[in-house]
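Researcher: I'm preparing a figure for a lab meeting and need a structural model of a single chain. I don't have an experimental structure, so a prediction will have to do for now. The sequence is pasted below. Please return the structure as tokens so I can convert it later.
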Amino acid sequence: MRIGLLEPSILMSKKFEDRIFAPKELFINLADGLVKRGHEVYAYSASGLNTQAQVIEGNKILENNEFPSARDVRKEAEILSSLTTIRNHFEYEIELITKAFLHAKQNNLQILHSQSNVFTHYFTKFVDFPVLFTLHDPVFPTNTLEYFDLNMFSDHKYLSISNSQKEHYKKQMNINTVATIHHGLKIEDFTFNENSDDYLSMMGRYIPEKGFSDGILVSLRLKIPLRLASSQNYKAVEYYQREIKPYLNSGKITETNFLFPAEKNNFYCKSKLFLFPIRWEEPFGLVLIETMSCGTPVVGYARGSIPEIIKDGETGFIVNFSEEDKRGDWIIKKTGIDGLCEAVERIYSMPEAKYKQMRRNCRAHVEKKFTVERMVDDYEKVYRQIIENSKKK
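Model: Understood. Here is the structure written out token by token.
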């Protein structure tokens, strides 16, 4: 197949390599996996992208510079800085999207798969080949521009990344979801460790939805060390200043900045368990399969995709968020913080042989369900079906 993969976000560039941006790794893994299968693959994305696909890159000048807009010269300095960044990012993405559609049309590509960006939808009416979109976010509130955009283009072809995400979109808007494909990773990039050190771990963006405050409460209540990892740029936000920073002097909570692959691997594989007390409908949670691939079990709330990824009692424990929000009859009967604490204590009290078996279960689960090879298999099937259906029109 002749396939185009589009990820126009400027966050794909080396300038932002110390930012958490999950679609980047997924995009590269999918591109390389498809090339390995013998497909002709074009990656429309940032310059210098480390992939075996043929890269059609964005504008390097816009990638590495920010130009002030003449329209903003009279605005307040803080607002000006924000608007300058937004305008430059939009300019970069529109230029790359335009380049992608022109190239795809001129080279007779059979399908274009876009990872993000609402602007891409407007270009579909100018081409004859099918365009597929991946949904990466939970359903947006109805009073937002993002909800309006998706609703306006609800008849376009979408891929969900979990069944939970698909169901939530189905309930709130009539999105044309053609398939659900779970993420996969390169299992060889993650080192399995049958043993662990004595600490809990959490990784992600410092935002309320990720539940860092709940993780901190668990650590302090049980007097077990907790290590946090996130991007430096999130430390300026109010949530970090209010809910995380004050506890860094407790003697139990420590943090590190963005972790590159080798550091991330070490962070996961030495952890006793990974906490994921999310406070939203998590669409997937790439960190879950990363940490399990190293053998580290997960304790998390039963929200979003978590029950699709974690095997309760085998690769960790699933905990109901509250007495009012029960989503399953899990092994741990307590809810909320109490439930998280019970799950952590249960793992800590396991005989060594049983705990090591749980770590082996984690690795085996990822090897069976969440590899790049399985993910590429699924995408190939969907691409072929969409291409075949487009020929019938």
